[in-house]
Design a protein that fits this description.
12 helices; transmembrane helix; iron; binds heme C; mainly alpha; heme; 2 domains; heme binding
Length: 241
């Protein structure tokens, strides 16, 4: 075994008391390293100020979820479910293609067309709400619950509580820190059915700069079902249009 420090001083003349400081020296060195590390961390934080992400790190694409709902919905002809329908939610392209239902060609077109173009040949939300299915909407809303609570407590999560959101002023739910974009939007808008319909089609397009990291609900029926469900989240649901 090697000599234990302090037991066999290299220099016999060296005072024993000094050698007994060896553990303290080691401790001191460790602390010094820690202090330097903290200092570097602090200084680098000053130099490289942290910035909020301008664009969200991830965007939830919901086309996968409605595919499931649509597959369960009564389809005119028993269309063989696209094998892609069971693809993981991440496979957005596949999911869009699998946006199951009646006529695959029309849906491809609808999926590919920009929201504005698609909106023009879509029945107005007032009409679609007449045949909307609240239960299907509740199912489709599962994808929202990652960020929103629908409870009547109005609790906020990543996004504001959505209880009684219909006919509310955008950006006004108590206790939620909205983006400036959403608050500005609220100065000139109300969450009526039509506004919700457009917003939920493509949130980023309708309210540029808002911080809802969500790609949108592309299928008009899915949006109608969702909005019918949102309407039900109230002690006094707003009248249908
Ligand atoms: C990834 C998280 C996330 C998902 C998923 C999400 N949202 Fe949001 N949502 C937000 C955030 C954050 C805001 C606040 C936006 C802002 O302040 O710019 C918001 C705002 C809203 C608003 C405006 C509310 C108000 O008080 O003005 C509505 C309506 C809304 N979301 C509906 C939905 C619906 C319906 C879904 C599901 C189809 C959904 N959201 C999915 C995060 C999300």
């Amino acid at each position: 075994m090697s000599r234990a420090p302090g037991r066999a001083p290299r220099d016999p003349k060296e005072p024993v008391s000094l050698m007994s400081l060896q553990p303290n020296k080691i401790l001191g060195a460790v602390l010094a390293v820690a202090v330097v590390a903290f200092a570097i961390d602090f200084v680098s934080d000053q130099i490289f100020a942290k910035q909020d992400l301008k664009t969200p790190g991830y965007v939830v694409d919901m086309n996968a979820a409605p595919a499931v709902a649509a597959a369960e919905a009564p389809a005119p002809a028993a269309v063989e479910p696209d094998p892609n329908a069971s693809a993981p939610a991440g496979a957005q392209q596949a999911a869009t293609a699998a946006d199951a239902g009646a006529a695959p060609e029309t849906q491809q077109v609808a999926a590919a067309a920009p929201a504005a173009a698609a909106a023009s040949d879509v029945a107005p939300i007032a009409d679609r709400l007449k045949t909307a299915d609240v239960a299907a909407g509740e199912k489709a809303s599962k994808v929202c619950t990652a960020c929103h609570s629908f409870a009547d407590s109005g609790a906020n999560k990543v996004g504001p509580g959505l209880w009684e959101v219909v006919n509310r002023k955008p950006g006004t739910h108590e206790g939620f820190k909205y983006s400036p974009a959403m608050m500005t939007f609220g100065e000139t808008h109300t969450w009526d059915y039509a506004t919700l319909d457009v917003y939920l089609t493509n949130p980023k397009a309708e309210v540029p700069g808002n911080k809802m990291a969500f790609a949108g609900v592309k299928k008009p029926e899915d949006r109608a079902n969702l909005i019918a469900y949102l309407r039900s989240l109230s002690a006094n649901p707003a009248p249908l249009p």
